Amino acid sequence: MFSLLVLMCFGEKLGEDAIKAIESAQRDLLLYTSKLNVFSFAPAITKHLFRHRWTTAFEMRRRQKELYTPLMTAKKEHKNTSINPSVDDPQGDRYVYSYLDSLLDIKLADENCRALTDDELVVLCSEFLSNGTETTVTALEWIMASVVKYPNVQAKMREEIERVAEDGSEVIKEEELQRMVYVKAVVMEGLRRHPPAHLVLPHSVSEEIVVEGYVIPKNASINFGVAEMGWDGKVWEKPMEFRPERFVEEGVDVTGSREIKMMPFGVGRRICPGLGLAVLHLEYFVANLVREFEWREVEGEEVDLAVKPEFTVVMKHPLLVAHHSSAMMRYLAHDGW
Ligand code: HEM
């Protein structure tokens, strides 16, 4: 998943070592972020009181910039030379149009049409990589945990996949996914029951407002209990049960434009810009994993749904599973094993 996002971000296929270095710098900074919350309170003072934290974070960002700079420079050079990807790169595996290309095209209209600075590019690419991978990987782990814990759900998914996907094809195609109603419902139920983010990013109130008798003053920082919304017994029947059928029967709007029953991606102006990509990745990985393998609990290692808050809310005990090739299982079943 990380390699895929690095390709989408920088538009270059990097070697394993380069990807590992970017991933490690990214993860160190991400895990350190919780230590930086102290700076939201009286930063002029806390910056001195917690000087060590400040310099450590600064050093981590410097390391990241060191890794990104050659990639940014190469991209700028490509843009300045008139490379025609279809001629210079007929296989299309060197010059992929990327997130960085779109950032380099930006001109800030209210700041004399200036381009983004290198520091701004580093922060935005870093945000893209961490927001785009940690969340999706966490969601995938939780969904697969439910697939293992509820064999009836897994069997129903496999039946749908075998019915819809073309026989003998290497992977399930995007247009086939669109016809897999139950796979989509499993992904939605996973995001409702185990949203990777239990809160959204902090939002600020632009005008004083009264909500159900509570005054929320202008400029207050507010947040929303995303997980609790998805578990609300007044809205969801038996909310703690993992029952994808509820989405087959009713469907749901996760963008908040029609209703807000769950909001794993936030809603409104600051809704997650990666929503479409994340849902596509989740459906794609879950469907292909279930098509290729049968997933079971390891004997004596029951799937444990305890949570641990990190950058996202992850499984406290990472998923440990046994898997067997589906083709092999069909062969053994056919031979009466
Ligand atoms: C299952 C996967 C994902 C979940 C659950 C998720 C969830 C969220 C949430 C809750 C927010 C905060 C919204 C708010 O503050 O109102 C957010 C913001 C964001 N997400 Fe995602 N996200 C996912 C995948 C992705 C992907 C794949 C990308 C990019 C490739 C991405 C990029 C971002 C960015 C850049 C922001 C910040 C937007 C802003 O500051 O306005 N996310 N995401």
Automatic annotation (TrEMBL):
PROSITE patterns: CYTOCHROME_P450 (PS00086). One of its GO terms (molecular function) is oxidoreductase activity, acting on paired donors, with incorporation or reduction of molecular oxygen, NAD(P)H as one donor, and incorporation of one atom of oxygen. Pfam families: p450. Heme binds at residue 272. Its cofactor is heme. Its main location: membrane. GO terms for cellular component: membrane. It is found in: Membrane. Keywords: Heme, Iron, Membrane, Metal-binding, Monooxygenase, Oxidoreductase, Transmembrane, Transmembrane helix. InterPro entries: Cyt_P450, Cyt_P450_CS, Cyt_P450_E_grp-I, Cyt_P450_sf, Plant_metabolite_P450s. It comes from the Eukaryota. It is a single-pass membrane protein. Belongs to the cytochrome P450 family. This is Cytochrome P450.
